[in-house]
Structures are given as structure tokens and as C-alpha cells.
Amino acid sequence: AAPRPLPWEPAERAVGAGGAAMFADRTAPGADVESVWRSARSARCEAKSCQTGKISTVETAVQSHSSQDAGVQTDQSKDAVQDFQQEVQADYTGLLSFLRKVEDAVIKELNKNWKSRAFDGFEVNWTDQNETVLCLHTLSYPEAQDQNLQVTSVSWNATGSVIACSYGRLDGGDWSTEKSYICTWNLDRRGLNPQHPDLVVDVPSSVMCLAFHPSQPSLVAGGLFSGELVVWDTGRTDDPVVWRTGLTDDTHTDPVYQVNWLPDAQHRNQARLLSVSTDGKILVWREERDGRLALAEGFAVVAQQIPRGTGLKKFAWGEAAVGVTSLSFSHFDPRVFVVGVEGGYSLKCSTAAETLALHRTGSSVPLRAPAELAFSPHGGPVYSVSCSPFHRQVLRINAGPANLFLSCGTDGQAHLHSMLQTQPLVSLQLSKKYLFCVRWSPVRPLVFAAASGEGNCNKCFCSVGDVHLFDFEKSSQKPALSLKQAAGEHPVYCVEFNTKQTRLLAAGDATGTVKVWQLSSDFTEQGPREMSHLEQLASEITD
């Protein structure tokens, strides 16, 4: 008999030797084997997803096991309200009797405090204390730096958020034809780019000085090397020029080294523009509708008409004009101002002067001689003067801090003067060579800042420059702090305090850089007796 084929073998294998099919093809059913493990697991409902044994857990409360609700705004019952009113019921009869007894004593003490000067000028400072001086911003315009232009002046606008700088040249070059710039940065703007000013204005001549309008934040005035004055509106990007003097017989014949905005007594909403120049003239300009600045009044400083104080040497220039480099108005009397001149003197002047100046140049208005008193000179030209902004509402006659001013010059000294005497109250040697700018703090009666540079300067060939912060409360002979403005041999030409954001101080230097410093609380918070200290300093030295 033939062997029986396996179910999965092909049919050919089931054929015998004779070739006849002995068996037919068929498919065998599959065989099932039931899993005993799976049925047992299902019956017990055991979880076998991991190999570890069962983990036992217990929840334990970490807070107090007991709690109590307290209602804080629920209505009280009438009985509770009555009990509370009975508890706070005041003895008005006894209170009235007490107030009558102490009335005289209280009024006496109030009157005493009212007359006290212990807290004059003191203001509570609610801002955070800052114990260090920090450099917040380093601003520059690369195109001006590529031309080796210097920052000649800086100014804050009326809101205190925008800083402007003027570019020019103070150390040589073809000043009259070289293009320069004014640039502005809004420090409150998001995404401030220190090397990309918000506004750049091209100017055909070096800009020697700059001043924002005191109440209109977009207006800024500049004095040029050519002797012209120009007023720009920083809100107009296409043609920002609003007013200008042009080149006329009234225009300065020398560079303009300072501009100031003055209130117009006849028109409250307008301001006049004052300019000083080394041609010896101090001119006041009014705005005209056709975009011109017209001469309203003027003064001329002539050597022969300068009063000589006791012990002061005579001016050697005869009737020659005395070059004016700087000016500062008294914060006590708007008619009084101080000028610094190239001869090294500071002069007390008055806008009420009536004497005509011995000035031979043509002018559309008569020029007057403003000088009333000459102070003891520096060892070289005076570059900056600054009157104290602090005074009392009621001053003793011919005394008090309202009559103080600072001056500085090429001898590296800062002089503290009283307008009542020719000799300085204090002479401070802050630099070995030159001081270019001095500014009294707007919030600290005993603090001022000075900009210095060293080297052989003809306004100027200089080197290392610092910003000196001086505090008479700490020392009357040396700076409280000296800030290094720039690396290398570069002078600092200008400094300006921010009168709105009083912690900010801006300084411009010969590298074309403006640094904005954040002052520490030591330089911005007035002490309770600081005004008295300043008055005492002036009176003690005067006596």
C-alpha cells in the first residue's frame, strides 16, 4: 500500500508508481488549543502589566484636621450694631474741653513751624534709591564721527525725554564751509538705537551751540560758526527750518557760542532768542512771520566801558570789543545776567542798561553797554558761567544764595562768586589745564558739574576728559566723583542736567559721543538743611 501523504504536501506526491491517483485533495480543519492562563487571569481580574508587586498608598492630610469658616462681609444683626456703636461712642464734651486747653499751645507750635527754615527745599523722594552713577546710553552719529566732528553742545527738550546734540569742530579745520549736523534721540522710545538718531538735520556750517525751547518740545535753536542763528522744528522732517537770521548787517560777525530762549514780556505765548558771540555783541531776536529772525535789541561789551573793581588791572584793549563766550541769567532778577569773556573776566550785566555802547559797526538798533561790574579774572579765557538756581522768596538785602554764580576757564579752575564782591569766594583747581563747561545742579544747591580736557588748547587741542561732580557738602576743595567720559586723549566739551528727569546728566566730547549718566541719590536728593549750608558757606567766606 502507498504511504499516506501529509495534509500540507502537494497532490503529485500522492500518486503511485502507476500514475493513478489513489486519494483526492482535501483541506483539514485547524486545531484550537484553549489558553488556561488567559481564562484564569480574566477570572481573577489581575493586572499583569508590570513585574512588581502591588503598591499600597495612603493619603495623609498636611493641613490642620479641623477648619472653621469666618464671614468677613456678612450683615450684622441689629443687636451687634448697637453694641458696636455703644463701644465707640465718644465723650465729645471731654474732647471739647481738652481742645480748648491745648489750643494756644498748638497754635504757637504751628506758627513756629511755619516760620522755620529747617525743611526749605526738601521734597520727599518716592523713587527707588540708587547708590551708584551709571552710564545709561552712549549715543553717536557714525557719519559725523567719520568726519571727525565733535559734540559742541547738548540740550534736553521741555519734556526731558529728548536729547539733542550739535556737531561741529573746535580744534581746527575749515569751519566755515564744512558740513555739520544736529541729532536728536528720544530716550523713552522703544527700540532706541544709540547709533541711529531719530532725527538728523544737515547744516552747512559748524553748529557751535544748541538750546531747546523752554515750553515747546519740538523747537530747538542753534548758533553757527558763520554767525547765523537758526531755529528748527524737530517735528518736521522734510524742511525743519522755521526761522533764521540770514547774513545781514545785524548778524554776528564771529561764531555764536551760546543761545538762550527768553520770555517775551509783551507776548506771553512767545519767546525771544538771545545770542552771544566773540564779536562782543549780545543780541536779542524776535520771530517774524516770513521765517526771519529780526533784531529786537542788543548790547555790546567794550573794554573802555567795563567798570573796574578795586585791585583789578585795566583792560588793555581800549575801545575794542571784548569777545563774549558764555552767558547765564540770574534766577532771582531776570534783568541781571553774567557773561564770561575771552579776557578771563566774568562780568555782571543788566538788560536795563541805558548807556549806548561805543561800538562802531552798523546795526539796525542802538546797542547798549550792559556791564556793571568786573570780577577777579581767571588765568585765561572764561568758557562757561552758571548762576545758582536756588534762592529764598524773601531775601536779606545784598545777601543770600540767589547772588551766587560759577565760572570756569582755560586755567582749569572753577570760581564760586558772589555778585556783591569782585574776589571769588572759592577757587577750585579741578583740572591741570582746561575746563570747558560748568553747570549748577537743578535739585541740589551744593552740587555742580564741570567738563574738563587737558592739553594745549586753542579751544581746543586737548587730551583726557572727565566729568567732575562736585558736592560742597562733602568737600570744598575736591570733586566728590570724577566720571571717565571716553577712553584715550579726548576732552569733554559740554554737560547739561535734565531739569525734568533730574537723575539724568548728559555730556558730549571730542569723539562725537554723547553719554547719558544716571546720577545716584547722593547727587539728586536735597538734604533738609542744604539751603542753610549754602547760605552759611557764602556768608562765612564773605565775612
TrEMBL record:
<dbReference type="GO" id="GO:0045503">
    <property type="term" value="F:dynein light chain binding"/>
</dbReference>
<dbReference type="GO" id="GO:0097014">
    <property type="term" value="C:ciliary plasm"/>
</dbReference>
<keyword id="KW-0963">Cytoplasm</keyword>
<dbReference type="InterPro" id="IPR015943">
    <property type="entry name" value="WD40/YVTN_repeat-like_dom_sf"/>
</dbReference>
<dbReference type="InterPro" id="IPR001680">
    <property type="entry name" value="WD40_rpt"/>
</dbReference>
<dbReference type="InterPro" id="IPR050687">
    <property type="entry name" value="Dynein_IC"/>
</dbReference>
<keyword id="KW-0853">WD repeat</keyword>
<dbReference type="InterPro" id="IPR036322">
    <property type="entry name" value="WD40_repeat_dom_sf"/>
</dbReference>
<protein>
    <submittedName>
        <fullName>WDR34 protein</fullName>
    </submittedName>
</protein>
<dbReference type="GO" id="GO:0042073">
    <property type="term" value="P:intraciliary transport"/>
</dbReference>
<dbReference type="Pfam" id="PF00400">
    <property type="entry name" value="WD40"/>
</dbReference>
<keyword id="KW-0677">Repeat</keyword>
<dbReference type="GO" id="GO:0045504">
    <property type="term" value="F:dynein heavy chain binding"/>
</dbReference>
<dbReference type="GO" id="GO:0005868">
    <property type="term" value="C:cytoplasmic dynein complex"/>
</dbReference>
